[in-house]
Design brief:
By secondary structure, the chain is of the alpha+beta class. It is 44% helix and 22% strand. Helix 1 packs across helix 4.
Amino acid sequence: MILNKKDYDALYEELMLINEENYQGKFYVTNVKDLEEQALQFLIDENYFDEKDKDIDENLSLKISWKGEGMYCFSGLGFIHEYSLKNVIDLFETETEVSHKIFLGDHIEIEKAKSKFTNVYVEWNIDIFSQTFSIKEIIEDKKAINNSRSLSNKENSQQKNCEFESIKEMDNNTFYELLKQYNKHLLTS
């Protein structure tokens, strides 16, 4: 899948929604030299360096993880003592643990990922005030759904805000959200 600037912008925007404090700058470049020049100008504009500093080239050490033409940004600027530039695809996949192809709607990649979840259902906790949802439970067969519904009806918590959904039938946005939460859910369950 070849990405265009619009695709990179969408990945960057999602990255900023997830962890805005850790990523700065946005540079769409075709070569390393352009990246170095744009990054240096950004550091000067944002007062990390004084433009009048004659030793700027000696004092500045950019750590570039070059992956070819694409969008790059600083990672950890202000938190760590290096100027690390990484490709937005790598940062996105590290942050979300989801393939950028799924986020961008690549149907082949989505179907391949969904095929790993045959007859699997998700019980979502739905927060009606913030209009967000989180995984309550992953259920592997329909009989378990009926048992889970029976248990939910007996509990005195806000179970009215739960919903069951087949992974196979999820739209792309919901499936992306599931994958984003999936590994975190496994760690906490």
